[in-house]
Amino acid sequence: MMYNKVGIVVKPHQDVLVYLKKTIALLKQRKVSFLLDQTSADLLQVKQHAEREEIARQVDLMIVLGGDGTFLSIAEQAVEAGVPVAGFNLGTLGFLTELKKEYLEENLDEILAGRAPISERKLLEVSFLGQHHAALNDVVVNKGMIARIIKLLLHINRRPLTEIKCDGIIVATPTGSTAYSLSAGGPIVSPDVNGMIINPICPHSLTFRPLIVPDSSLLSIQLLTPHIQTYLTFDGQKVIAMEYQQIVEIRTHPKRLSMMVSPTVDYFRLLSEKLNWGL
Question: Is 167 a catalytic residue?
């Protein structure tokens, strides 16, 4: 596939201007037009830009220069617009921005020529208070700052599974298994696995462990504790207050995110590198 117009989204970083200029120079050399987000435009001291929430609708490829947070900030828009995303990691860990900045020009050549490998990543679709949201990594129900636990009722396929006392619960995609869920003791799951991870946060029970269920499942979580601030968070980007007895439903999203991946490093090698497994 050839790309005629590219959107560029960046995170302010000490090296970002260098790689932003390299990206634009290569796009100009290939006669590919581009659209900047406001941060990119500010760095280059130009006025013309698009709002981050709108940019994906106006291009046929998104390039992210930054970290996984920057990638996640445009993932839902990219899915809705049906455009692929290439993430170049300027941070430290970076499982979504897996393309290396050192090979930016080589990888961009492959991408613009339509030769770069693409991984189709599953998302979560969240229904809450009549609104629908998408999450690439995870959906989290967790309490606020008060040092008290909350009680949640979990249903799978409309059948009650458990009432759990905890600080919260994470529902993650395989892609999101290396994010918050991993920090909370969850398993690492290959993006190719057809499942969803249910992972309690500090459960007041030793018997409820992280659980992987088929991605055809319908999950629902109801808050059973009143008078404690509780929040619903999508990919760490969007936060909504959740009230007593309200229910959130989570299922696999019908659409996929097309994500550019490294042509030389597969997922398991990426894990070994990122997690310093010593090979």
Answer: no
